Amino acid sequence: MYPPIEQYETGKLKVSDIHTLYYEISGNEKGTPVVFLHGGPGSGTDPKDRLFFNPEKYKIILFDQRGAGKSTPTASLEENTTWDLVKDIERLREHLKIAKWNVFGGSWGSTLSLAYAQSHPERVKTLVLRGIFTLRKSELRFFYQEGTSHLFPGAWEEYIAPIPEPERHDMITAYHAQLNSADEETRIKAAKAWSKWEMATSKLYVDPAQLAQADNDRWANAFARIENHYFVNDGFMRDGQLLEKQEIDKIRHIPTIVVQGRYDVVCPARTAYDLKKVWPEITLHIVPDAGHSAREPGTAKLLVDATDKMADL
Fold this sequence. Notes:
This protein is α/β, with parallel strands linked by helices. The protein has helices at 82-95, 108-119, 137-144, 153-160, 171-179, 184-201, 208-213, 217-232, 245-248, 269-278, 297-310; strands at residues 9-14, 20-27, 32-37, 58-63, 101-106, 124-130, 256-261, 283-287. Helix 2 links the parallel strand 5 and strand 6 (124-130).
């Protein structure tokens, strides 16, 4: 990854009566524009997200999606859907007076990248995607109900602990009730448990720093509530919509590189494989020694290689 850099511009963009987005720009003011779409939904951006891009070649645009990071109001679920976020990306592009840009997204960011590109293919020059996630029911079941639970039984026990045993047949719905409880203590306890489950399973080798992030009340509350809100509503789209032929046909011409961890148990490789089947024109890299995180060495290297290649297209 590239060395740390500072942003040269920050701003706030009001996108509705409720929501105001935080955005920042770094790199080369006259470089190739690239927009970074963060994961979660609800995780927000991090200064390290700038480091996937050559700062001499790219105008690097990061923003926090509705309710996440420095965007306000924090953890808000009102007017917060996939299609609201797609409209926000377009508003930001228009606000910054950018004709077309490269799009980079991993995990939920890959979902949003595909949804945005399929909605506005004429505005997307290239796609770099990681940890493909299309919000199908089968994907959600694997991570939140049965699948990853067999690989991380200790972390799974902690994840299910806040949920009464009779409700554990549908963990997403059970968590929804607690994350929206009128009791703040119940909400925060559930948010931390939900967040810790993902932090504990995101890397091939468990990262204590990631686990510690789940103990941050504000971050965990936004991350868990917004994620769960999207998942309990099936991403506000048809099951498998992003993989449908008529949707892929809209973006088939866009140069696309996908980087996928072989041992990703949050967004398993099956989804990247299914994407490649319906869209054989993409370049798919399977990283043999990586899990879900973008910052594992093999994945990070291939992502940087991809952005280097796309910078000159």
